[in-house]
Amino acid sequence: MIRRDRLIAGLALAAAAVIAIVAVAAGDGGEPVTTTDESFVPPPATARPTPTVRPTPTSIPVPEPETVASFVFRLDAALEAGDLDFAFSRLHPLAVSAAGQNVCRRYIDNDFAAATDIILAGDVVGPNTITKTVGEFTQRIRDHYTAQVTLTFAGEDFVLDAEFASIGGRMYWFSTCE
To answer: N or C: which end of the chain has fewer CB within 10 A?
Structure first.
């Protein structure tokens, strides 16, 4: 009887996951969301150990989506620590598709790495859904945000209108890789 209950509970969880994935992928108004980033590879599935105690809904941690403010803080901390991989991994896939991974990597390593003191300097506007074109690539961007940030580059302070987008609860930034 316990095995039958686990099987039914497992099927119910699987059905809920499929419904959630379809709902997320459907976009606004049921239209499919497409991307030009063909380099995305989902992480491999891993086996989870069977819990000895059934979790209750209040004991299951729900990850908080990253905010623009927390992302800007993490981006500045990563640059200060010399973690250029974080900056590159969070460059929006549309920017990478438009310029190519090698060009964007050089941009991060040679130019953006010199930026310091990146601070959110104004109100965050969003989320909005926009259509964005970068180079020859156009993409519909859901959960798009804009905000002014300040940064120091080569000893000069700059105020920039920055763009961000949330994908799967993680924040990504837009830039033109040159």
So the answer is: N
Strands 170-173 vs 116-120: parallel, antiparallel or unpaired: unpaired
Cα 71 from Cα 45, distance rounded (Å): 27
Name every residue whose Cβ is closer than 8 Å to that of residue 126 and which is 6 or more positions away in sequence: 68, 143, 144, 145, 146, 164
Backbone angles phi, psi at 30, to 5 degrees: 80, 5
Q: Give the CA-trace dihedral at 74, 157, 122, 88, to 10 degrees.
A: -30
Q: Across the chain, what does the average pLDDT equal?
A: 76
Instruction: List, for residues 127-152, the tens digit of each pLDDT value.
Output: 999 999 998 889 999 999 999 999 99
Burial label, 130 (beta-carbon count in 10 A; 0-12, 13-18, 19+): middle
Long-range contact list for 58-62, CB < 8 A, 24+ apart? none
At residue 40, the pLDDT reads 44
Q: What percent of the chain has pLDDT over 70?
A: 65
Phi then psi for residue 134, to 5 deg, are -130, 115
Could you tell me if 59 and 138 are in contact, meaning their C-beta atoms sit under 8 angstroms apart?
A: no
The span from the CA of 93 to the CA of 167, in Å, is 10
